Amino acid sequence: MKAAVYRGPHDIKIEEVPEPEVSGRKVLVKFKAGSICGTDMHLYRGEWKWMKKGLIIGHDAWGVREDTGERVVMVPIVNCGHCYYCLRGLPTYCVRGKFYGLTRDGFFAENKAMLPRSLIPIPSNVSDEEAAIVEPVALALRVLDYLKPNVGDWVTILGQGPIGLLMTQIAQLKGCRVIAVDLEDYRLELSQKYGADSVINAQKEDAVKTVRKLTKRGSDFVIEAAGTTRTVEQTPYLVRKAGKVALVGESKGYLNLEDADEALFFTIYISPVEYPSAVELIARKLVDVKGLITHRFKLAEFEKALQTVDTLSEKPLKVIITQ
Ligand SMILES: [Zn+2]
Ligand SMILES: [Zn+2]
Hints:
Strand content: 25-35%
Distance between the termini: 12 Å
Radius of gyration: 19 Å
Order of helices and strands: EEEHEEEHEEEHEHEHEHEHEEHEHE
CATH topology of the largest domain: Quinone Oxidoreductase, Chain A, domain 1
CATH superfamily of the largest domain: Medium-chain alcohol dehydrogenases, catalytic domain
Largest sheet: 7 strands, mixed
Structural class: alpha/beta
CATH architecture of the largest domain: Alpha-Beta Complex
Shape: globular
Bound molecules: zinc ion
Helix content: 25-40%
């Protein structure tokens, strides 16, 4: 079968690989569609050199179960259920956990053997393309769940790429006032479409000054989704005292906490917990993932898809891969 194999930085190609072994309780899932995520791009750009060469990448995808014919979203993290972290509701850190597309072969392959408990059925009113973008919705739900905002609270979101735009949508659903920050106007136009109360183009305006002016005392919550050390380092100046900061895009950078008294900072990149809720929100049209799709490629054109995500002039947001 064909699969997208990681061979090294800027070296991810479609190769012929052996079929997966369907053993024990596993079932075969035939790949239908998926999307490229920031994590895949970290690998492509050679930013995560610890990645094992020869692994199949991809962790946001769906397919059809060969045994039942059902459309299913594949959850990329498998946890044991009884280790220290699992018992504390933190399956992402399971000591026996597997992370498809990062520590185990991922989903950009024609076939994948999966445990039925890692498969979420897709309702008929979720389209084939929509079902390809579930992981960032699940992450956005988890982040907002950690922040626990009240109606009317200020949430400043740095970066309005696919993840930032989904944070904007879900913060709106929670009744927050959203300040969306990005460097690109085409992204900020979408933030406005998704209901952001204020947008800041940080190329033209001082984001810290504007946020402090709008919120009076600093933002109740700050989400870093731009993925740069510069934006990470900005967060202590944006958050109010005893506010909360979620670092979603990047965690490196120096945090000067001089004026961020009692503020809480945490990192988070993925969550397998909210997958069923994410699919349900898409089905109920409460979250729009379709509007984030800018490009579509076939699995065979995988390299071209990666290059497109890396070309700013293409104005990429979500790039979809189909069989
Ligand atoms: Zn991802
Ligand atoms: Zn565990």
